[in-house]
Design a protein that fits this description.
The structure holds 2 protein chains of 2 kinds.
Chain A lengths: L3 E4 L2 E4 L5 E7 L7 E6 L5 E6 L3 E2 L7 E6 L2 E6 L9 E6 L6 E2 L3 E5 L1
Parallel strand pairs in A: 2-11
Antiparallel strand pairs in A: 1-3, 3-8, 4-5, 4-9, 5-6, 7-8, 9-10, 9-11
Chain B lengths: L2 E5 L2 E3 L5 E8 L7 E7 L5 E7 L6 E3 L7 E6 L4 E6 L8 E8 L5 E4 L3 E5 L2
Parallel strand pairs in B: 2-11
Antiparallel strand pairs in B: 1-3, 3-8, 4-5, 4-9, 5-6, 7-8, 9-10, 9-11
Chain lengths: ~110, ~120
């Protein structure tokens, strides 16, 4: 199975700050990488597909990039509703696997 | 509005079985792959498996392949997860999800809680 490692596991940040979450795969995944947001009530929302494509309805302050084994999710200016958990997920090779998650917390 | 609603969760004794359902509405159910993901308390997301539109292809994460069975009823717009030989390690919230393009799970249910305990 492909292992996905997210860093950091938690990140204190302030409103308006620019933040970047990293996701590293144990082998190259050819940009087959998606991102999700999970709110404290458990609600899960898709954010980005195929490394850098914004899902419909997702604000443009979210962006994704990367290649090979290294990928990242950037939020350009944090809004109050962005404080949540974030997960990457690879779909290069079954079984699809998720990163361990990054908790974005209000500083 | 796309809606996925899981049901069938609860408290179950170790070694027993449980079947979860996921009722889909607001989209053409038989046009989509569907899948299950779980989340143990305080842990991250774990992909369980997926099923294609006509149930001809079902994929599982290897560690759960012998315990869990995914099925669907397109006439009832319902996805199922049959779980057997449950252990404490299976205590989790179980989510059903629709698989869209790029294998993005683009719609999720609210989750069904399963607790395995005597």
């Amino acid at each position: 199975d492909i292992q996905m490692t997210q860093t950091p596991s938690s990140m204190p940040a302030s409103l308006g700050e620019r933040v970047t979450i990293s996701c590293r795969a144990s082998q190259g995944i050819s940009n087959y990488l998606n991102w999700y947001q999970q709110k404290p009530d458990g609600t899960i929302k898709p954010l980005i597909y195929y490394t850098s494509n914004l899902q419909s309805g997702v604000p443009s302050r979210f962006s994704g990039s990367g290649s090979g084994t290294d990928y990242s999710l950037t939020i350009s200016s944090l809004e109050p509703e962005d404080f949540a958990m974030y997960y990457c997920q690879q779909y290069d090779s079954s079984p699809w696997t998720f990163g361990g998650g990054t908790k974005l917390e209000l500083k | 509005e796309v809606k996925l609603v899981e049901s069938g969760g609860g408290l179950v004794q170790p070694g027993r079985s449980l079947k979860l359902s996921c009722a889909a509405s607001g989209f053409s159910f038989n046009d989509y792959w569907m899948g299950w993901v779980r989340q143990a308390p305080g842990k991250g997301l774990e992909w369980i498996g997926e099923i294609n539109q006509d149930s001809s292809t079902i994929n599982y994460t290897p560690s759960l392949k012998d315990k869990f069975t995914i099925s669907r009823d397109n006439a009832q717009n319902t996805l199922y997860l049959q779980m057997s030989k449950l252990g404490s390690e299976d205590t989790a919230i179980y989510y059903c999800a629709r698989a869209g393009s790029s294998y993005l799970m683009d719609a999720w249910g609210q989750g069904a809680s399963v607790t395995v305990s005597s």
